[in-house]
Amino acid sequence: MSDLSRPAGPKIIAVANQKGGVGKTTTSINLAAALVEQGKRVLLVDLDPQGNASTGLGIDVDDREYTTYELLLDDIALDKVVMKTSYDDLYIVPATVDLSSADVELLSAEKRSFLLHDALRQTQIDTFNLDYILIDCPPSLNLLTVNAMIAAHSVLVPLQSEFFALEGLSQLMMTIREVRQSGNKELRIEGVVLTMYDKRNNLSQQVEHDARSNLGELVFKTVIPRNVRVSEAPSFAMPVLSYDPQSKGAMAYRSLAKEIIKNNVA
Ligand code: ADP
Ligand code: MG
Description:
Layout: E1 11-15, H1 24-37, E2 42-46, H2 52-56, H3 68-73, H4 78-81, E3 83-84, E4 90-93, H5 102-107, H6 115-119, E5 132-136, H7 143-151, E6 154-160, H8 169-181, E7 188-195, H9 202-215, H10 228-232, H11 240-243, H12 248-265
Parallel strand pairs: 1-5, 1-6, 2-4, 2-5, 6-7
Antiparallel strand pairs: 3-4
Helix pairs in contact: 1-12
This protein binds adenosine-5'-diphosphate (ADP) and magnesium ion.
Protein name: ParA family protein
Pfam family, one: AAA_31
Domain AAA: 11-189
C-alpha cells in the first residue's frame, strides 16, 4: 500500500538529540545500511562538523571535496556534493570541520533555517531515486539542527540507556514544537530508540520503563543493545551490518529499519 499522506520523493528523517555520545551517528550509519539491506536507496547527510558519519562509512577526509558546508552556504548542485559510498544504493553528503563555522555564518543568511530544506529539494534529487534521507545532527540544538528539522518529515531520537537519559528530552520536544510553528507544521516524531541497552543492568531497565511510560507508542519496540561489535565497526570504516552481520547490534538495527519502513506505510 502506498503512503498517501506523504508527497512523492524521499522520506527525510533527522536523527537528533542535543546530548553528545548517545548514538546519533551510530544509528545514522547503521540504520542507513539496514534500510539499504531492505532494498531501499538511502542518502546520509552528515551535518556534524566532527564528520564521524563520513569517516564511519569510509570517506577519506582528503576525498571530501564538496561537503555539507557547500551544500548549505554555497550555491552548489546536489550531484556535486553527493558521494557514492562503497555500498550500492548508499550515498553520503560528507562533512568536515569547515562546518563548525557554518552555525555562525548561517545567522546572516537569508532564509537561514531553510537552507537544507531548499538544498534537498533541488529537482536534481530525483535523479538519485532515493527512498530515504537520514540527517546525522550535531550534539546541539543550534541552527544546523534547526535546518535539519525544517528539512525533515520526522525526527528520530536516540536515547542512551543511562542515568539522566530523559533529561533534556523536554528541551528537544520544545524545539520540535517551535519548528512546527516556524515553518514545518507537519514535522513528526519518527520515534525514540533506546541505545546502548544492557539488559543485565537495572539502570537500562529503569530508563526503558520511564521512557515507555512517559512516551508510550513513540518508543520503538526495538532496543539497540550495547555491543562491542557496534563500537568496533567504525574503525574498519564499515556499518556493523557489514562488519559483523550476525552480531546483536546488526540484528537490532535490521529490526529498527523494519519498524521504520512499517511506520511509513501505517
Ligand atoms: P553521537 O553521534 O550521539 O555523539 P555516537 O554514535 O558517536 O554518538 O556514539 C558514541 C560512542 O558510543 C561511540 O564511541 C560509539 O561507538 C559508541 N556506541 C554507540 N552505540 C553503541 C552500541 N550499541 N554499543 C556499543 N557502543 C556504542
Ligand atoms: Mg555524532
